[in-house]
Design brief:
Layout: H1 2-15, E1 19-23, H2 39-55, E2 64-68, H3 78-83, H4 95-105, H5 115-124, H6 130-142, H7 150-155, H8 168-177, H9 184-197, H10 203-209
Parallel strand pairs: 1-2
Helix pairs in contact: 1-2, 4-5, 4-6, 6-8
Length: about 210
């Protein structure tokens, strides 16, 4: 059944080309083969690899793109890694990216944060991932709902629109609850994998690959 679904997925994608097949948590289905692995899992994995082989050939399939994402590239099967012709390390968001994430996270939230507050929060979230930033905004936005007496007032018919604005103090509390989820050892492991298998190991090699810097 699993193999048929994989064939159907790629078949529909080819029929509707140009198409993109995005596989999140790629390591969960294309992990390294291990002794004692379930036969059904092996068949699905083999079928995906066969279909990816077809995508890499010249012809009509050039209009079909397979994209995978993983936080565990070290666990990918060697055959799967070879079929993924471009292997790109996406680094943690820098200050500008975190500022944009904060702005987007607060877009639909009533808040009383100043520009100084936002700059301080950008500095305080160095090392946070995109999901960490989203979690931080959600946690801070929930704080007004935890105010003493709010729940009973809401049950009594209080309009939720009178909820107070999110403040810097709410974010300070949220920073104590939502910490950076990617450790230094994990970052080093990603960098090492990128040095071995990444398409662009550093900016200099990227410029050379693009024909620049000559």
């Amino acid at each position: 059944e699993g193999e048929r679904l994989v064939r159907a997925l790629f078949g529909v994608a080819r029929a509707r080309a140009p198409s993109v097949i995005f596989i999140d948590e790629l390591d969960s289905i294309l992990a390294q083969r291990r002794e004692g692995e379930m036969e059904g899992t092996v068949r699905v994995k083999n079928e995906i690899l066969v279909q990816m082989d077809g995508v890499s050939t010249k012809g009509a399939n050039d209009r079909l793109l397979v994209v995978g994402a993983t936080n565990r590239p070290q666990e990918l099967d060697d055959a799967a890694r070879r079929r993924l012709q471009k292997r790109l390390l996406i680094p943690l968001p820098d200050a500008d990216a975190r500022a944009d994430m904060l702005s987007r996270g607060l877009n639909d939230i009533k808040h009383a944060l100043t520009d100084v507050d936002l700059r301080d929060l950008v500095r305080a979230t160095n090392g946070y991932s995109g999901s960490d930033m989203a979690g931080l905004c959600r946690e801070a936005a929930m704080n007004p709902c935890r105010d003493e007496g709010f729940e009973s007032a809401l049950m009594g018919g209080l309009n939720v629109e009178v909820l107070r604005a999110v403040t810097r103090s709410d974010f300070d509390d949220a920073l104590c609850q939502v910490r950076a989820s990617v450790g230094a050892s994990e970052l080093e492991a990603f960098e090492e994998w990128n040095r071995q298998y990444g398409s662009f190991k550093n900016q200099q090699s990227k410029r050379q690959a693009c024909g620049a810097g000559r």
